[in-house]
Predict the structure.
Amino acid sequence: MMAGALAGLAALGLAACNGDAGETANGNGASTGNGDGLVRFNPDPYPSTYTPFPSEVVLIQGATVFDGIGGEFENYDVLMQDGRIAGIGEGLEAPDGATIVDGRGRYVTPGVIDIHSHLGVYPSPGVSAHSDGNEITSPVTAEVWAEHGVWPQDPGFDTALAGGVTTLHVLPGSANLFGGRGITLRNVPSRTVQGMKFPDAPYTLKMACGENPKRVYGGQGRAPGSRMGNMAGYREAWQRAVEYRRAWHRYWDAGDADATPPTRNLELDTLMGVLEGEILIQMHCYRADEMALVLDMADEFDYQVTTFHHAVEAYKIGDMLAERDVCAAVWADWGGFKMEAYDSINENLALVHAAGACAMIHSDDQLGIQRLNQEVAKALAAGRRLGIEVSDGEAVAWFTSNPARGLGIFDETGSLEAGKRADVVLWSAHPFSTYAVADHVYIDGALMFDREDPARRTVRDFTLGQPGEGVL
Amino acid sequence: MMKSLISAAALAAIGLGAASAQTIAVTNGRVVTNSDAGIVESGSVLIRDGVIVAAGANVSIPDGVETVDANGGWITPGIFHPHTQLGLIEVALESSTSDASAPGASFTAAIDVADGFNPAGGHIPDSRRRGITRFAVFPSTGSGVIGGRGALANSSGQPDSIFDDRTFLYVDLSQSGASTAGGSRNAAWAYLRAAFEDARFYPGRFMSHHEGDAINRFDAASLVSAVRGEIPIVLQVERASDIRRALRFAQQHPSARFILAGAAESWMVADEIAAAGIPVIMDPLRNLPASFDVLAARLDAPARLHAAGVQTAYTTISADLYFNPRLITQHAGNAVAHGASWEDAFRAITLTPAEIYGVGDRYGALADGYAGDVVIWDGDPLEVMSAPVAVIIDGVSQSMISRQSRLAERYAERVPDGQYGYRH
């Protein structure tokens, strides 16, 4: 089902390094497989067990439809079948047994995607025992994985769903130069994080620029204590990754089953995955000058930055981002909380878009994730006032297809195109209105949220029996 | 050429270009009066010497007065934010730029935010550009549950921005107050009761001792006006049980006046709050059990409070109180999306805050005798895509330029790299 760019990502880890996308045998982290007697690793030891909820054939009729890739169509229908988008168009015929949804006066978009969330790793309630999003013990912790900290019972998933969020990317925090691996989740209730994992989504690596690492570690009298120290820390780690990768390739290429394999290093596994192009860099950077330095560093070690997050000053270097094919994920109006956020402007997203770079909204916040459509509306309105022409349809991409691209899952979701997962939101009004709420939210064609139906409301364990049970 | 442009822009940015108040008319818009006149579909507002002299459908505009044409947009009172730290904080994580709290200070009630308030604070112009004309400035708690006394200011950026100081006393009895008090709510309440007693028996108690049971002589002298009800006490409380405790405390101190802030679970005790006649300042966007203090936070809380007859104003505590008070219109719009009437929600960010602070006869409405604070919007002010096109404070047209707007303009056009530094 996965097409194009994602095909090569079926094997996410080291096994793909010698072009032999080996399925490994026992899933215990290392194994001898492929019959050649060489040691390889299981790239997917905590595999997704996500199964779509049961779906029906659903035809939404007569809505205004944003396809997520620029299009806006009035009086359009959306047909979902077998959990996939069967088509969008005018006057589609209802298959036998289809559930008909009256979309007149309402609006349809692809499911909302948040590329920057800490739901599950900084869940509600935000008590100290729940602080699982930052391994603040060493500046380089590429070996930690956000999915090992996600609490699937975070009530924030439920409220995000009511805000139309069907897919979200959970990142470890920004205390470290290398914070660890992020994980892309389907926004469904599950007892386990594996049950939420977006099947075959690429792994990501969170990195952080600027004030956070230098404050956290400099405050302890350790490196990095400055932006110079940050860069030195990244480069030192990348160099180790280059050598680690070289050692493994030499071992595999030699094909000698009796040779001693290099010592496995979980931190360098992740960095090596980036150098192989299999793990996508999601880098927290505010300042334009720092982003430019990071792009040079990416050239130095031959890897690609997928997306700069919190890119408050992206508007200053939109042209550079466009040239390098790097996305910017930004807020509509957060700023001022630290010096590197001081130059925050509402027009950021629109300016980056106008420069031809891939731009998107992100939340980094359990309340903000519930209203990414409004955040986009604010950014769009500010841009238009500056004279930047962006259609509503293009702006819908800022909370749908562009974050999907930034996560390497655009072939599966992020737009309403035939064959894609049926991740769909039916809005009560134009999604750029403050007054619009999500009436229906579908994930893989299954109706996961219906504002009118309390029985179809996800309620995480924590809120059961609490004063806030089931409320939004 | 370049030079004159620079100075003109710089002057506008710091507001020196503002003319003195004369007669000014705002015409041709949908007028939200917040008075018995309601919403007038097509009307005008006339301001003379900084004060509104007429508002509504049939306002006759004298010849020759400065006229601002609303072009069919919305004409409303200025937004009154009831709960900010504008002018106190420039960059939150740089403590050298913040005068919001002083954990190392030896004073509590005697602290007065007016002493630290900077009318030229960097985030005030952007708040003004977004329609905020008046705001309450809050201290944070420092060395005790009593944070100090707040002030009311306008957003003109002028040296006389503070129009009412020592307006209210801020006290935190929520989870964070418990932590400030040493670790429990019990200790926080004990501290407040003892401080009250110190102030009630001021100065007699301090004839022989410099220290009261909880606070020193200077703090006690400052607390007297709050204990006597001359200024209200804003109590930060979230949990329903804490709110009930606050209502009981209010009953036991009938001379004092109280306002509840935070109040995430206030909807659960809305009838009791209404019966006590105590106002609430709350944030419509909080809806997660973010702590064990706010397990029942919900999006339709504002609607429930309005329905119960609680005098309710909105705040932006879930965003922040120094950079993003400007989001208050979005917060109000979301209250409407979740059941509040538009009129209640709009009042909650204009007239109601003014009433809560005892200045509702002067601010928050477009009616005879009210201050000439008028905003013209290009659409419904509670819609996220709407924005002001003109802001008037005390009858004076305000600059719509901020540091943020100038950054946007500087980078709106691509120029060769080094040339950015010469674009002003």
Summary: Chain A touches chain B through 54 residues (CB under 8 Å).
